[in-house]
Amino acid sequence: MSFFDSLTGGSKLQSAIKQAAKARTKEGAQADFLYREAYSNFATLLRKHTGAADILYNWGFALLHEAKTSNHDRAIALLDEASEKFSFCLTINPDFLGAAIDGGVVYMGLAEAMKAKPDDDFYDSAESMFLTAEGIQKGSASYNLACIYGLRGEDEACQESLKKSLDHGSLPEIESILNDSDLEKVRKKPWFKKFIESLYALEEEAKAEAEAETRKKQEALDAKKTVKTPGKSEKKGKKN
Questions:
Q1: How many CA atoms lie within 13 Å of 200's alpha carbon, on the beta-carbon side?
Q2: Which of 37, 51, 66, 155 counts the highest number of beta carbons within 10 A?
Q3: How many other CB atoms are there within 10 angstroms of residue 213's CB atom?
């Protein structure tokens, strides 16, 4: 492939990505049209250009988001196709973090749509994807794993994953954690309550530190303003 072809391929990929992003802001026939156009462009790019991993990931990402606004049967079909795209992407590039995380999200979506039990293969596949993501970047899918372990009632594994997510800065907001249905089985457990209390304490500590820093800056600014600047007569002295 020539250098010019590689440039135009990248431009066409960005165009397809923008089409899929625009589709997420539309509804009905307009959204359907934009998704179809984006998928057609992804398919064309795969046949003609390199960068297949990026194309497959963005194709799968678009499918995943279309599934969120589709009816039950259509959503399952879209999620199924998205899982294929993410898996293929990881075959080409095993270190593609987004494909690993979103691949796990797809299986979680399929499990929910199929009303699968926590020990179902869908959750096993999701766990495998999230573990792959953890192998690529520690903490990147720790919270997702905590959700799976929470659904299964595996307290120790859930607690460890939540702490790991906290340590790596990937934990959601406290209210999101409290409202996450995947954690319903562990929500009333003493260890979970203690963990939430520790999050509130950290939040208050961070707030206090931020306020102290703001005061410190303001005091420094006020002190600077009160320093007297010498006038002309003080600088040069008066002539006789």
A1: 8
A2: 66
A3: 10
Q: Which two tokens stand for residue 181?
A: 């249905």
Q: Dump pLDDT digits (tens) for 75-122.
A: 999 999 999 999 989 988 999 999 999 999 999 999 999 999 999 999
Burial 120-134 (b: 16+ CB within 10 A, else e): eebbebbbebbebbb
| Strand, coil or helix: 185 | coil
Fill in the DSSP letter of residue 117: -
> What are the respective helix, strand and coil percentages of the chain, to the nearest 5?
80, 0, 20
- Give residue-wise pLDDT tens across range 164-179: 999 999 999 999 999 9
E-only strand ranges, the chain: none
Residue among 46, 19, 51 at smallest CA distance from 33: 19
- ∠ CA 108-62-9, nearest 5°, is 135
Please answer whether residues 122 and 107 qualify as being in contact, where contact means their C-beta atoms are separated by less than 8 angstroms: yes
Position 239 confidence tier, pLDDT thresholds 50, 70, 90: low
Q: Report the Cα 206 to chain-centroid distance in Å.
A: 23
Q: Are 81 and 45 in contact (CB under 8 A)?
A: no
- Residue 109's pLDDT is 97
CB 101, CB 141: distance < 8 Å: yes
User: What DSSP designation does 183 have?
Assistant: G
Q: Print burial letters for 84-109: b (CB count within 10 Å at least 16), e (below 16).
A: bbbbbbbeeeeebbbbbbbbbbbbbb
pLDDT digits (tens, 9 = 90+) for 30-83: 888 888 888 888 888 877 665 789 989 999 999 999 999 999 999 999 999 999
